[in-house]
Amino acid sequence: MIPYGRQEITDADIEAVIGVLKSDYLTQGPKVPEFEKSVTDYCKVKHGIAVNSATSALHVACLALGVGEGDMVWTSPITFVASANCARFCGADIDFVDIDPKTYNMCPVALEKKLKQAAIDKRLPKVVIPVHLTGQSCEMKALKELSDQYDFAIIEDACHAIGGCYNGLPIGNCKYSDITVFSFHPVKIITTAEGGMAVTNSNHLAASMQLARSHGITRDSEKFEGSSDGAWYYQQICLGYNYRMTDMQAALGISQIRRLSEVIKLRHSVAKRYNTLLSEMPILLPYQDPNNYSAFHLYVIRIDDCNLARREVVFDYLRDCGIGVNVHYIPVHTQPYYKKLGFKSGDFPHAEDYYTNAISIPMYHHLKNEDQDHIVASLIKVVENTEQ
After folding, report:
1. Which helix (H) or strand (E) element contains residue 217?
2. Pairing state of beta strands 127-129 and 153-157?
3. Phi then psi for 183, rounded to 5 degrees?
4. Alpha helices (runs of H) in 94-226, residue ranges in sequence order
5. Tens digit of pLDDT for each residue in 20-44?
């Protein structure tokens, strides 16, 4: 089976992890801060807080921004459920903003329209979480202007997007946001097996996220209530979680990020080849905004005049051919949990239209030409045979 995404583990990666296994520290050692620095240096941002998953990173980001009961958080309906769940973890309400039908990212026009109505209703969001779907940045400049006007914070969900750029700057620099979150799951661009990171330019937000990831405990005597009992002393000053990344994971991440720029270039080569091979097909290929340099985590195609039934035929045929296609994503507001909160089909039509005919075909930087040829030939055959 050719998977839709696949990690690459090199001998250097393995040696990096073995080095930690032979060291005195398996967790909470020197590799985690070293990995944080490697990411912040790459992204040109001040602080990095490594955690055990991107879901944890989204959670601590919401906590740092003070999200709680009675607050409202908005995100995209086309994303993994964690982008919305993080607000619910904090007791906040959630809502969605429809996507741009060209980029599949949060639509700034739809956001502005929704904000105008929310201002009238006195129910503005505390935080907006735009999602850089497939690795292409949202229109962050427009979103930041709306943030300044309507006074909400921004968490960039860049789980697909490390290594990409927006307006010539690396995604994660936080010029247009308060916090950016990355994922290092195995199918992502670089991996720590499981893991994530929140990055920010704010000293205050960084300190808050650092506390939240490790039980709310500090050893900084300047933050103590009262005096220290000795060198061993610590205090829990808020409620936190065990969201720490291990040194083994961090060592793998350090090794992987050293080749990140080259990995992104290779992903662009794979995408360019797909664009050429599929150019004559009745298929909508991924749009690339000229202000963006996508990380190309995913390569999503949309089949012309396709409905759910036909997409299922195409999907099943490709799976039978040994091609591990997938769908990213089922609109979050149509999930049973969110329907119980009052959402329903028809609420976000562009997102729902996208879902009817989108398929993610295999995309990873070491995808072989012969595998790509097999994917394209199989796709051509099934699309032609199912044309309506």
Report:
1. strand 217-218
2. parallel
3. -115, 145
4. 108-121, 140-150, 203-213
5. 999 999 998 999 999 999 999 999 9
